[in-house]
């Protein structure tokens, strides 16, 4: 539901509790959400606009990089987002849906997320990439477990682990190791990112019945949704620790 | 020698005179420039920084797009530049050279080219992408004809035709078809792009002996270089006609 969807933090999710077990998502071979569920188009569309908005935010934030090496690393992350966009555009096209029409309802919420979490430093930008990616990966990976295989494959592909997270972890850890005030500042920043992501996710759900139905079908019931958000908070805390924060 | 190196205009080159014949570049099976020529590292490096600077300029210029469709098209062009960068980074690494060290001497000239040709409208940005790419493709394709096969393959790969040029041609043609003042303005803009590209190419050559030697080896002699620049001007005029300009 956030802009960063390059999947940098799927590894971190794997380090914590088992996501499926945590929220009671079914792992039996028959998926509970068929490929023709009307929410699937919404799911692909929100992921697609997430890639586009992440691309442009990364390109913009690269200006904050103190080195050419940092700029190149960010350009590679941004290019990976576009590979994922291509995958989603094709998946939507296969469903007879134009990606631009499908993305339109999600522009406002995702832009609002980015506007409310506009980094003012290079390190804030790095934390946002890693943490935003992680929150998105948590949310969509759990949905994928309940989706028909041909749909789940698309979702997992666009959340696939990249090796960019290593760069980010090193940048942040090195910077905060001996700088307590920077660490405190970035810890607060991380908390704000999670809050804004959940706010915008709830806003999208309230607007899009089909997507809400899909999330309900994936999590089982309202208790399942509460467990999903709790799991996301735990994973977030684990990611912050990996960055040397919190 | 310019920033745009996505290869959009190689097709246009093919439409004109045969490049090899035009400048007397050898087409016999024995390449005249061995793979270990000291200018090859410079060649890969200037191409690599060209991709990075084109990436960030495109991402910046996408703000000028009146539509999300345009922004997405530009993001795809930018992502393609990064694929090419990866190819060049690997090729340099294979020669035991760090891409960042190798690019350093070219940062100033390429940044100067972009600073002196900063588009102020969406159409200027589109013309710059297409025309800049074309000038670069003309120059480097001719060099490739004289290079050892393993080097030529890398150069041709990063100049490979993409289908993005179709988008640009349509955007520009449609805009200038019934707007004469826009057509006149963009025609002057195209002329300026060629002039600035040649100025910066000459600046780079004057600074980098190895690259000058490589270009001399590829073109035969000073007469060959003059013929190369004449060929580039002819191809440029052809590209402008394709855009409905000039």
Assign the CATH superfamily of chain A: Ferritin, core subunit, four-helix bundle
Instruction: Report the CATH topology name of chain A.
Output: Ferritin
The average pLDDT of chain A is 86
**Class inferred from helices and paired strands of chain A:** mainly alpha
* Total tally of structural domains of chain A: 1
Alpha carbon gap, first and last residue of chain A: 23 Å
Q: Catalogue the unreliable spans of chain A.
A: 1-22, 24-28
Oligomeric state, counting identical vs distinct chains = homodimer
Query: What's the number of extended β-strand segments of chain A?
Result: 0
Estimate the strand proportion of chain A: under 5%
Secondary-structure element order of chain A, as H and E?
HHHHHHHHHHHH
Task: Tell me the name of the CATH class of chain A.
Answer: Mainly Alpha
Give me the Rg of chain A, rounded.
17 Å
Major sheet characteristics of chain A: none
Major protein interface: A-B, 21 and 21 residues
**In which range does the helix fraction of chain A lie?**
over 70%
Number of helices of chain A: 12
Domain Ferritin-like (chains A, B): 38-216
InterPro entries (chains A, B): Ferritin-like (IPR012347), Ferritin-like_SF (IPR009078), Ferritin_actino (IPR059125)
Pfam family, one (chains A, B): MiaE_2
Protein name (chains A, B): tRNA-(MS[2]IO[6]A)-hydroxylase MiaE-like protein
What is the structure about, briefly put?
In chain A, 74% of the residues lie in helices and 0% in strands. With 246 residues, chain A is mainly α.
Descriptive account of the structure:
2 copies of one chain form a homodimer. By secondary structure, chain A is mostly helical. The first copy, chain A, has one domain (38-243): Ferritin, CATH 1.20.1260.10. Helix content of chain A is 74%, strand content 0%. Chain A is built from 12 helices and no strands. In chain A, α3 packs antiparallel against α4. The interface between A and B is medium-sized, with 21 and 21 residues.
């Amino acid at each position: 539901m956030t802009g960063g969807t390059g999947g940098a933090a799927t590894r971190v999710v794997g380090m914590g509790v088992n996501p499926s077990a945590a929220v009671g998502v079914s792992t039996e071979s028959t998926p509970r959400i068929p490929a023709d569920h009307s929410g699937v188009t919404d799911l692909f569309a929100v992921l697609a606009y997430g890639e586009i908005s992440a691309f442009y935010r990364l390109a913009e934030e690269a200006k904050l990089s103190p080195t050419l090496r940092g700029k190149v690393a960010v350009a590679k992350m941004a290019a990976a987002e576009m590979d994922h966009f291509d995958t989603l555009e094709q998946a939507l096209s296969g469903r007879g849906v134009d990606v631009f029409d499908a993305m339109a309802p999600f522009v406002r919420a995702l832009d609002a997320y980015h506007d409310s979490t506009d980094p003012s430093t290079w390190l804030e930008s790095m934390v946002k990439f890693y943490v935003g990616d992680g929150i998105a990966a948590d949310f969509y990976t759990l949905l994928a477990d309940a989706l028909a295989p041909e749909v789940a494959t698309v979702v997992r592909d666009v959340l696939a682990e990249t090796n960019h997270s290593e760069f980010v972890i090193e940048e942040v850890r090195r910077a905060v190791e001996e700088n307590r005030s920077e660490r405190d500042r970035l810890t607060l920043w991380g908390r704000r990112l999670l809050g804004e992501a959940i706010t915008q996710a709830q806003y999208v759900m309230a607007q899009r019945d089909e997507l809400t139905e899909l999330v309900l079908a994936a999590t089982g019931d309202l208790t399942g949704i509460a467990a999903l958000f709790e799991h996301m908070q735990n994973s977030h805390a684990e990611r912050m620790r990996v960055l040397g924060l919190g």
